[in-house]
C-alpha cells in the first residue's frame, strides 16, 4: 500500500464497518506500521475485539506506540466548534504533531478515522467535506494512508456530496450506497 492513499468506505452495518476498518488496521499492524484509529468508543470496543480475534493485542500494541486509539467524540471538538466551524490552524497544528509522533518510530503511518462520518451524521456535510480537504492538505506535508468511513445516509446518497466524496478520495473501497 502506498503512503499517499486516501480511502473511503461506505458502510451500512457495524459488522461491515468493523470488518473493513479492522482489516485496514490489522494489515498495517502486521506490516509493523504505526496505526492511529480515531473512532467512537463503541467502535473501538468492536475494533479491539476484531484485532484480538486476529491474534493481535491492542493493549500491548498501544503500549509500544504501534497502535494509537483516539476517541473521535473527544477529538473532534478540539478543532471544530458547532458555531464557528473548523479551526484550520488548530487542525493542522494538532494533526501535524500527531503524524510526526506516529512517524517517529521510522515506520509508515496509517490513520483510520470516522470524525467525518460524525460530522455528516450531525447534519454538517459541508464541515465533513472541509475536514476531508484538510486531510488532503496534510497529506502534501506528510506520508500516511488514511481510511475514512461513512455510514450510508442521505448525505452519502446525495449526488452532489457523493461526487465530492469520490473526487476527494483516491480510492473507494466499497460502494455501500
Walkthrough of the structure:
The two termini are 25 Å apart. Helices cover 52% and strands 21% of the residues. The protein is an alpha/beta fold. Strand 4 (80-81) and strand 5 form a beta hairpin. The radius of gyration is 15 Å and the shape is globular.
Gyration radius (Cα, Å) is: 15 Å
**Percentage of residues assigned to helices:** 40-55%
Strand order of the largest sheet: 3-2-6-7-1-8
What is the number of strand segments? Answer: 8
* Overall residue-averaged pLDDT value: 92
Helix/strand class: alpha/beta
Could you provide a short overview of the structure?
This protein is α/β, with parallel strands linked by helices and 177 residues long. The protein has helices spanning 14-30, 41-53, 58-63, 72-75, 88-103, 115-121, 125-139, 154-157, 159-168, and strands spanning 6-11, 34-39, 67-71, 80-81, 85-86, 109-113, 145-151, 171-174.
List keywords for this structure.
single chain; 177 residues; alpha/beta; six-stranded parallel sheet; two-stranded antiparallel ribbon; 9 helices; globular
SSE order and pairing:
Blueprint: E1 6-11, H1 14-30, E2 34-39, H2 41-53, H3 58-63, E3 67-71, H4 72-75, E4 80-81, E5 85-86, H5 88-103, E6 109-113, H6 115-121, H7 125-139, E7 145-151, H8 154-157, H9 159-168, E8 171-174
Parallel strand pairs: 1-7, 1-8, 2-3, 2-6, 6-7
Antiparallel strand pairs: 4-5
